[in-house]
Structures are given as structure tokens and as C-alpha cells.
Automatic annotation (TrEMBL):
Residues 141-340 form the Peptidase M16 C-terminal domain. It is found in: Mitochondrion inner membrane; Mitochondrion matrix. PANTHER family: METALLOPROTEASE (PTHR11851), MITOCHONDRIAL-PROCESSING PEPTIDASE SUBUNIT ALPHA (PTHR11851:SF49). Heterodimer of PMPCA (alpha) and PMPCB (beta) subunits, forming the mitochondrial processing protease (MPP) in which PMPCA is involved in substrate recognition and binding and PMPCB is the catalytic subunit. One of its GO terms (biological process) is protein processing involved in protein targeting to mitochondrion. GO terms for molecular function: metal ion binding; metalloendopeptidase activity. PROSITE patterns: INSULINASE (PS00143). GO terms for cellular component: mitochondrial inner membrane; mitochondrial matrix. Signal peptide: none annotated. This is Mitochondrial-processing peptidase subunit alpha. Residues 1-135 form the Peptidase M16 N-terminal domain. SUPFAM superfamilies: LuxS/MPP-like metallohydrolase. The lineage of its organism: Eukaryota, Metazoa, Chordata, Craniata, Vertebrata. Keywords: Membrane, Mitochondrion, Mitochondrion inner membrane, Transit peptide.
Amino acid sequence: VLINSGSRHEAKYLSGISHFLEKLAFSSTAQFGSKDEILLTLEKHGGICDCQASRDTIMYAVSADAKGLDTVVNLLADVALQPRLSDEEIEMTRTAIQFELEDLNMRPDPEPLLTEMIHAAAYRDNTVGLNRFCPVENTDKIDREVLHSYLRNYYTPDRMVLAGVGVEHEQLVECARKHLLGAEPVWGSGQTKDVDRSVAQYTGGIVKVEKDMSDVSLGPTPIPELTHIMIGLESCSFLEEDFIPFAVLNMMMGGGGSFSAGGPGKGMFTRLYLNVLNRHHWMYNATSYHHSYEDTGLLCIHASADPKQVREMVEIITREFILMAGAVGEVELERAKTQLKSMLMMNLESRPVIFEDVGRQVLATNTRKLPHELCTLISQVKSTDIKRVVTKMLHKKPAVAALGDLTDLPTYEHIQAALSSKDGRLPRMYRLFR
């Protein structure tokens, strides 16, 4: 079951509700007295369960033997619409979340933290810029009443999709009629009044966190102290035609860490490997990411290096952004398109991925584009399309996230100036001597 609900919908509520719901999933319900009972029921059909909340979707998923379809749909309907949310469960969730937040700040891999920061910088205080993790100060404020008030507005039939893979469509429809149609949720079915329909407003900006990264090492070999930078620009939503050229561009940029053992097909010919990691041995990481939602998107590059080389690192990344709008080689473009298609096909060999793909597409568009249709669209991307989408993207203000020792970080204005220049260079700093 996929529900159009996530941290982006929490503007009128306490931030962190989705984080709570994710952790509370598959606990006791009207039919099942405890989490153990649910797991035992699933075990009879060789099943496993999982819940994941993202910025715009919450997903309750079960993988089990197809013979147990009726049991599984009944269980999913119960978990999504009839959770007990007992005081004890909420208290345990509070503890789990507090532990997770502490862990997040101590992890040597700052990826989740940077992703939050870049979204907060790009969409200041609105929609996808709202925090996916529950802020520490809210853990004690979220209780059953707050959760019910949120669920009443967002867990409504028009915002839900039941998706299945490896089952007959008619059987699934039959089960949905039996267990979900007209089901009365535990919070009642009053009128929804606080549904947030705001569209993402891209603001651009910078979020900086000064942090001592010298002691994040695990084990005897210390991880070198690094400063992490992420620079992003607004791309487009996954509903727009330009989504495909952006996906190809992201593939073309590629990149990775300096330690990732690369072989053919590992993206060793991508621009961030060839122009950045191979030329500047002191850079530990340069990776391109593309986040896309139904009303906006964000293309960003994450780079990390020693704090003394931050300024140089930022300039290398801003130059790469400017170079995106330049010439695109035919071989390079074909390679990126082939790689994107093969990645799409390989991912769709796994059933959980197909399930998520079907569910998300139907939730957003009421239809599903099949893999061969997407491959055709990828094949049609030309170098002029890449140039067009990049030129449009470079007119926006950048979003910047910086974590670590930021003594040598250029100012936001300087980064913006570099991205508006012809060669991506930062304005020179003249030191005045007395």
C-alpha cells in the first residue's frame, strides 16, 4: 500500500510525524495484538514486511507466497487503517527515534545529513525542504492525538494505491474490494480540512553546519578529516518531458568515491571520474545525484576533500556545472544513455523495485509507463536537449550544503557568481596588506 503522504505534507503539523509513522508500522492493530502476531502470520506464508517513509510517499510493503494474497491484503489494510498506536508503542518509538538521531550525527557517512541540508537550502521552509527526520524537540510532543489528526487528513482512499507484483490483477482487485473498499479507519472518516496542497517553491540558499569531523573514524585506521560540500540547482519534476534528459545528464556526470573499485560499467568514463577524481587525487568523492518529485527536482553534486582545499574543490565543481552546458560528445552521450537503460532494466529484475515503480507511477499519474517506453524516450535524447536543460538550470540560484571545517568555504555570493560566469571560476580574493 502506497500513500501520498510524507514529510512534505507536515507544514501545518509538527515536523516528524512521518518518521513516527514509519517506525510505528506493523505494530499492534485491531486484529493483531502485537508485532509478533503479525510476524507469525506472515511467517506462515514465508513473508517479510517493511515500511518506508520518504518526502512524498509512505509505503507499507509485504513480500510473501502468492497463495497468501488474501491474508496479506487483509493484514496491510489493518496495518494502514487500524493501528492501535498504544502509549507503550509510541514511547518505544520515541526512544528509537532519539537513538537514530544520535546515530545520524555520529555516522562517518554524512550522505543522509547532507541530503537533508541541500533540500532545506533549496526549498527553504516549504514542501520537500521540510525535514524528513523528527527534530529532537518534537519527539516528546507527538502523541496519538497528533497522529490521528494527521492520518485523518492524509490516509484517505483518494491518496492510496494498492500495488502488487506476481499476482493476478483480478485477484488483487477482489482482495482490495473485500478488505479496503469502504473500510472504516480507526480515526474515523470525518471531513479532511488540513490537506496541504502547496506546490514546491524553489528558493536556493545555503545551509552550513560547522562540525569537527576529525573523530568520526571507526576502528584502528582513522578516516581522514573531510569537509563535505553539496551544490545543487533546480531541475524538473518527474512528470515533465525534460525529466529524461536530466536522468541522462545525471548518468553522464556519474562519479563516486576515490576508493570505489571501478570496472567497466562502474561509470569510470563519467565526467566526474575523468575530469575530477582522475585529475585531482586529493579529492575523496565527487558524485552526481538527481532527486525528483511531482512538482520539482534537484540535480546536485556532492564532493569531499581536506578542509584546506575546500575553495579549490568548490571551484572544480562550479566549473563542472558550467561545462555541462558546453559540447556533449556523441560517444559520451550514447554511453550515458546505454548505461541508464541497462540500470533501469537491471533494477526492474527485482520484484520490490517493480512494485515500488508501479505504485509510485500510479500514485502520481494514474498510469504506468512501461520499461520499453522509457527506453524509447531515453534513446531519443539528443545533445541539444542536454544543452537546453542545463542552460535553463544555470539561470536558477544555487542551493549549497556544507558540513565540516568551513574556514576556507567561499561565500554564497561567490559560488553564485562562479555559476553565472563563463568559466565557472570563483571571483579572485585580493588580500590587502598594510
